[in-house]
Amino acid sequence: MDVKVRHDPHASIGRIIVCGPWSGNVDLARSLLSEVSRQYPKRIKTQFLVANGGFVSFDMDWRTLTAADNRKALEEAVE
User: Fold this and answer.
1) 60 has a pLDDT exceeding 80
2) pLDDT category, 70, cuts 50, 70, 90?
3) Ramachandran sector of residue 54 (left: φ over 0; alpha: ψ -120 to 50; beta: rest)
4) Which of 1, 28, 37, 66 has the most CB atoms at less than 10 Å from its CB?
């Protein structure tokens, strides 16, 4: 995997841009995030890291979704 990290010392938002085909594989996404973290300058702090839609894809049973309270997560939804 070819990872290039560019940085702006004053940026508060980081963005991951995937060039080429992307499957959304969880293990590949984890590997990419690990490599970005390894290369990212330690002295630069960002508040957010944004990835493209479909960055991580997985099967989900949509029937189990209920209205969520963002102040108190459902125990079964949090590992």
Assistant:
1) no
2) low
3) left
4) 28
